[in-house]
């Protein structure tokens, strides 16, 4: 998020003074690291939690369409930066990969068929394929059917134009570009506090972690792109917009295949249905091909868990230290309303390796436990906030928080996260830089040709832009 915003602003206003402070020694090692992400290329093609069945029995597509729109903005911006030389070879951060949804049982198969019918009517999803034929599913992803009962009803939907994105590599490339353009990059520097100075500028207390030195840095505008750490910094700023908001941390683990023969048999992202109602998006099971630093891998998970730290390299005191008088009641209400979710997370934490492999076999029946190693994923901090009735609710998703005068902004929440970073940063530009926006529009439209349009409402424009970005990002080969 931070490097995306920095790269946008540097191109829009090359003479502005920009600084980036990162607690760790390199960029992209926390939430953006590929093994800390639960999903790496959200287009809403395969994630079933984005297409819920409503009380009337219909399958909703609005959320999926919104996320797909945002991901196509990401593709356009990355394409622009590849053409400009801001990013390197597309293969270093994005690769073509089919996206699939896979379920079993009559109720789930009926749902997936209804979802297929609903999605294929939308231009952004019109190329969806669907089958209940195990032989055809085997041709798409053979690990799903090997060893499976031939009489079991299964169903699968597939998009051939999905992608896998290494957001760690993407983040590092943007950071390197910023450094080459004169942006001040300070790694190993922790921002510990934010407050208003007497001149109205923001003052940040920054600690050099290796030298132990502290200094104060001031700025007219601050973006807090600190992942789970954003809540504490926004709270320290004292802005009204952060009051009443709390954080609910969710951790995760993956099983990663160690057998190269198994890895080579699977070439897709395959998502299923969550095992419990109201499970966090990062707990939705998936058998997932990934390309990390150019190497092909296969993982399954995640297995949700609970820890009180807000960052993978954070403190166990993060959760208790985030409690304030203004968010205590909403947080307590969320706890009372989500006892089933908390119980589920506790059960996930205590699962043995054998139990994890048994869950893997729902997707891959022939899986052998010794061929998989456990990987600890990153932390996600789901927002807790008041609803329209003033009661605390647990909110899944990503939310941009901006101060009333637009001089500060921060990002809270999780999925779909990094996949939609450009759209979120465009929203930030609109909220925080209204005086400059009109002058920026021609450049923004050059960066993202669909800026100001909805591709789902303009099928011809969608096809043109999709073809152009596929060519630039080398997604057809």
UniProtKB/TrEMBL annotation:
Its cofactor is FAD. This is Probable malate:quinone oxidoreductase. InterPro entries: FAD/NAD-bd_sf, MQO. It comes from Nesterenkonia cremea. Pathway: Carbohydrate metabolism; tricarboxylic acid cycle; oxaloacetate from (S)-malate (quinone route): step 1/1. GO terms for biological process: tricarboxylic acid cycle. GO terms for molecular function: (S)-2-hydroxyglutarate dehydrogenase activity; L-malate dehydrogenase (quinone) activity. Keywords: FAD, Flavoprotein, Oxidoreductase, Tricarboxylic acid cycle. Its EC number is 1.1.5.4. PANTHER family: L-2-HYDROXYGLUTARATE DEHYDROGENASE, MITOCHONDRIAL. It is an enzyme of class 1 (oxidoreductase). It catalyses: (S)-malate + a quinone = a quinol + oxaloacetate. Belongs to the MQO family. It comes from the Bacteria.
């Amino acid at each position: 998020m931070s490097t995306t915003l920095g790269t946008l602003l540097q191109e829009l206003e090359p003479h502005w003074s920009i600084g980036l402070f990162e607690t760790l020694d390199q960029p992209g090692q926390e939430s953006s690291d590929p093994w800390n992400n639960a999903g790496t290329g959200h287009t809403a093609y395969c994630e079933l939690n984005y297409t819920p069945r409503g009380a009337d029995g219909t399958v909703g597509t609005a959320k999926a369409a919104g996320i797909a729109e945002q991901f196509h903005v990401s593709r356009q911006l990355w394409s622009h930066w590849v053409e400009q030389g801001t990013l390197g070879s597309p293969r270093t951060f994005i690769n073509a990969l089919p996206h699939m949804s896979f379920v079993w049982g009559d109720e789930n198969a009926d749902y997936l068929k209804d979802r297929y019918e609903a999605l294929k009517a939308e231009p952004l999803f019109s190329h969806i394929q669907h089958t209940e034929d195990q032989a055809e599913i085997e041709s798409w992803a053979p690990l799903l059917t090997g060893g499976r009962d031939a009489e079991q009803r299964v169903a699968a939907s597939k998009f051939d134009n999905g992608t896998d994105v290494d957001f760690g590599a993407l983040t590092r490339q943007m950071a390197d570009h910023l450094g080459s353009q004169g942006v001040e990059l300070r790694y190993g520097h922790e921002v510990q506090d934010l407050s208003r100075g007497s001149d109205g500028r923001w003052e940040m207390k920054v600690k050099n972690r290796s030298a132990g030195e502290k200094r104060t840095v001031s700025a007219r505008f601050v973006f807090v792109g600190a992942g789970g750490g954003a809540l504490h910094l926004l709270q320290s700023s004292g802005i009204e917009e952060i009051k009443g908001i709390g954080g609910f941390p969710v951790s995760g683990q993956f099983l990663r295949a160690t057998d190269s023969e198994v890895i080579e048999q699977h070439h897709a992202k395959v998502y299923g249905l969550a095992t419990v109602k109201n499970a966090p998006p990062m707990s939705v099971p998936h058998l997932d091909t990934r390309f990390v630093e150019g190497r092909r891998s296969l993982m399954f998970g995640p297995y949700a868990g609970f820890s009180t730290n807000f960052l993978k390299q954070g403190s166990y005191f993060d959760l208790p230290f985030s409690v304030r008088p203004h968010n205590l009641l909403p947080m307590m209400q969320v706890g009372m309303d989500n006892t089933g979710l908390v119980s589920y997370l506790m059960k996930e934490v205590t699962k043995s390796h054998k139990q994890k492999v048994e869950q893997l076999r729902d997707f891959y029946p022939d899986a052998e436990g010794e061929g998989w190693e456990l990987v600890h994923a990153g932390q996600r901090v789901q927002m807790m906030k008041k609803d329209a009735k003033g009661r605390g609710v647990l909110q899944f998703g990503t939310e941009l928080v901006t101060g009333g005068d637009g001089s500060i902004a921060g990002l809270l929440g999780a999925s779909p996260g990094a996949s939609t970073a450009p759209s979120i940063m465009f929203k930030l530009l609109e909220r925080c830089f209204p005086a400059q926006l009109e002058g920026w529009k021609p450049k923004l439209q050059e960066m993202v040709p669909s800026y100001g349009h909805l591709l789902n409402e303009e099928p011809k424009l969608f096809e043109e832009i999709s073809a152009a970005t596929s060519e630039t990002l080398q997604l057809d080969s």
